[in-house]
């Protein structure tokens, strides 16, 4: 007997071996958010096993899934900016931010029937590089967590655990005026803290009665041994080709 053309493709996922299929959440619920709420939130829950979004529109979820800024997502009907959703998804095991993003991409394709095109363009950006001796501690364990919160008005604090620097670069791009491209060449995951002042009018800063942090550029250099340089760089742009309101859970 001759057996021909048998090929078994095996892909590594967050927990082990996965037979040729898109990386996906174990379970996920998407529901319309309650009316009248202000603000929204989306995050990978500490530990890297769950993804949560509250009162969040679809364009923001696409931004998160593909690791870009809002101005890098184009096209789509108006409702993707207006209608808000609550999302609760579990991976069933500990995952990296990159794996969570792929799971979110799969979820958006399945529930919103999202179809899109991806392109790379040379655009104004910041390039993140590392000093000869960066001040980053290797992660104590693999349980991912990232927090961003105000210490006081106009003071921002970021705290990361088991964070890869491409994810950190994306988070920096969300508080700056252009994308941040990771060119540190530092592999692995890191624990760190960063404290800086928002970019506001100098007259406002002059009236602040408490001790101030440096701006984000100086804070990165002083606290983490990293540097931001403004220049054109290859940046991904997401074009929404088609999308529908979500199907049932």
Give the rounded overall mean pLDDT. 88
**Sheet with most strands:** 4 strands, antiparallel
Q: What structural class do helix, strand and pairing data support?
A: alpha+beta
Secondary-structure element order, N to C? EEEEEHEHEHEEEEHEEHHE
For the secondary structure, the number of strands is: 14
Low-pLDDT parts are 1-19
What is the C-alpha radius of gyration, as a whole number of Å? 20 Å
Domain module count: 2
Helix run count:
6
- Using the alpha-carbon principal axes, give the shape: globular
Q: Largest beta sheet: what is the strand line-up?
A: 3-7-5-4
Proportion of residues in helical segments: 10-25%
Q: N-to-C terminal Cα separation, in Å?
A: 46 Å
What is the strand content?
35-45%
Explain what this protein looks like in three dimensions.
With 249 residues, the chain is of the alpha+beta class. The chain has two domains: 10-116, no CATH class; 121-234, no CATH class. The chain has six helices and 14 strands. The protein has helices at 58-66, 79-82, 97-111, 165-175, 202-207, 216-224, and strands at residues 10-12, 17-19, 27-32, 41-44, 50-57, 73-75, 84-90, 115-130, 137-138, 145-152, 155-163, 180-182, 190-197, 226-242. Strand 10 (145-152) and strand 11 (155-163) form a beta hairpin. Helix 1 (58-66) crosses helix 3 (97-111). The chain starts with 9 loop residues before the first strand and ends in a 7-residue tail after the last strand.
């Amino acid at each position: 007997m001759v057996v021909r053309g048998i090929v078994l493709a095996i892909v590594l996922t967050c927990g082990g071996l996965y037979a040729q299929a898109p990386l996906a959440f174990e379970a996920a619920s998407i529901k319309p958010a309650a009316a009248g709420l202000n603000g929204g939130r989306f995050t990978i829950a500490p530990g890297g096993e769950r993804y949560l979004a509250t009162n969040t529109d679809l364009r923001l979820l696409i931004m998160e899934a593909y690791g870009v800024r809002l101005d890098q997502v184009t096209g789509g009907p108006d409702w993707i900016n207006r209608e808000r959703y609550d999302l609760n998804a579990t991976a069933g095991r500990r995952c990296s931010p990159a794996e969570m993003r792929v799971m979110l991409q799969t979820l958006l394709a399945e529930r919103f029937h999202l179809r899109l095109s991806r392109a790379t363009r040379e655009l104004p950006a910041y390039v993140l590089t590392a000093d000869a001796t960066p001040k980053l501690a290797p992660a104590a364990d693999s349980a991912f967590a990232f927090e961003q919160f105000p210490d006081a008005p106009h003071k921002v604090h970021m705290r990361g655990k088991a964070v890869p620097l491409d994810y950190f670069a994306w988070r920096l791009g969300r508080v700056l005026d252009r994308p941040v491209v990771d060119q540190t060449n530092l592999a692995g995951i890191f624990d760190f803290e960063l404290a800086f002042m928002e970019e506001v009018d100098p007259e406002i800063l002059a009236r602040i009665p408490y001790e101030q942090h440096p701006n984000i550029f100086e804070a990165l250099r002083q606290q983490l041994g990293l540097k931001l340089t403004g220049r054109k760089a290859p940046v991904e742009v997401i074009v929404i080709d088609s999308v529908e309101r979500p199907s049932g859970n």
